[in-house]
Specification:
This protein has seven helices and 17 strands. It is of the alpha/beta class.
Length: 340
């Protein structure tokens, strides 16, 4: 019998995933990972994970990874905003912790496979978008190392979230899991990201709003309050039409604004690549932000970077974000936006 280590979050997705794997005849052990240190979070979610593990009838391990999370996910999150960029902590967490430290722990207990409640599919060579496109999480898993794909199981990849909730509601003892609220996109952000940042950096540092020629045209409340494409929260003297953040200069605590056309982008350069193909030049499509549509592009890999020419204009591209390549519904890797 093959042993599976399944990540248990205390939510409905991981709980139903465990039940589905048990039905398939796998030997199961669960693991709850303590990541961030948001007050009160782990007390609630660990208790839920234990309840789910007891219901399934499997052992639940507790991994305290808060120091690793702080070093590899949280500190880069703060530093990236301080550099005037827009971070993607979920992709870093998936590589380093959920499909990094968790894989290491699976090896320690002799588990053949690793499973989670993510909405994504894999054939052992590539990731594929989930059947439920409203829940698909492939964008955030582009950075996972290809060598571990043959060991990954995703029971929810071909299922709808609505069906998972209905399933939980129909199982005596799991009704409360079906009515839980959806988890937030960034687990350690409860209200806004600036509320998290303010404990570590000065986010409320009033500065100048500049136009593209460097003229002072208004005032903002601190550059870390803004991401590329934002159109509110700053003043522009005499403006009669919307202005958007088109660039951020952390060294001078300035934001540069312009009209919507100035957000237009037709090429990007990516660094720190993670590719599931060995091709050095290819046509594909790329998604430059979560919950945006992918656009056709031409990619050339040179000196460890990807030079991406977009065949359609994209508005509001932010450095620091992930750019993920797709061939139809197959994920073929990606990288981090260095410039555009």
């Amino acid at each position: 019998m093959k042993k599976v280590l399944i990540g248990m979050s205390g939510g409905v997705d991981s709980t139903i995933s465990a039940l589905l794997l048990k039905e398939e005849g796998y030997e199961l052990e669960g693991v709850y990972m303590k990541l961030h240190s948001k007050p009160g979070y782990h007390e609630i979610h660990q208790a839920r994970a234990q309840k789910a593990a007891d219901f399934v009838g499997m052992k639940l391990h507790i991994l305290d990874l808060q120091d690793t999370f702080n070093e590899k996910v949280f500190k880069p999150f703060v530093d990236t905003y301080a550099e005037g960029k827009t971070p993607n902590p979920c992709a870093l967490c998936n590589r380093s912790l959920k499909f990094g430290e968790m894989v290491n722990f699976a090896d320690k207990i002799g588990a053949d496979y690793i499973a989670t409640g993510h909405y994504i599919k894999t054939d052992g060579k590539f990731f594929y978008e989930a059947d439920d496109d409203t829940k698909d999480q492939s964008y955030f898993l582009f950075y996972v190392e290809q060598k571990i794909l043959p060991r990954l199981l995703f029971p929810l990849g071909n299922r709808k979230k609505s069906d998972i909730k209905r399933m939980a509601a129909s199982i005596k003892g799991l009704e409360s899991f079906a009515s839980q609220g959806e988890s937030t996109e960034i687990c350690f952000v409860e209200t806004s990201y600036t509320d998290v940042l303010k404990d570590y950096v000065d986010v409320d540092n009033i500065g100048n709003v500049l136009d593209k020629d460097g003229n002072v045209v208004g005032e903002h409340k601190g550059f870390m309050h803004y991401t590329i494409g934002k159109r509110r929260g700053f003043t522009v003297k005499g403006a009669h039409e919307p202005h958007y953040v088109v660039d951020i200069d952390p060294k001078t605590n300035s934001i540069i604004v312009g009209k919507r056309d100035e957000l237009k982008c037709n090429s990007v350069v990516l660094n720190d690549l993670n590719l599931y193909t060995e091709e050095k030049e290819f046509d594909t499509s790329v998604k430059l932000r979560f919950r945006t549509k992918s656009v056709p592009c031409h990619v050339k890999i040179k000196d460890g970077k990807a030079y991406v020419d977009l065949k359609e204009n994209v508005f509001g591209v932010a450095t620091g974000q992930a750019a993920v390549f797709y061939d139809d519904n197959k994920l073929i890797g990606g990288g981090w936006i260095e410039s555009n």
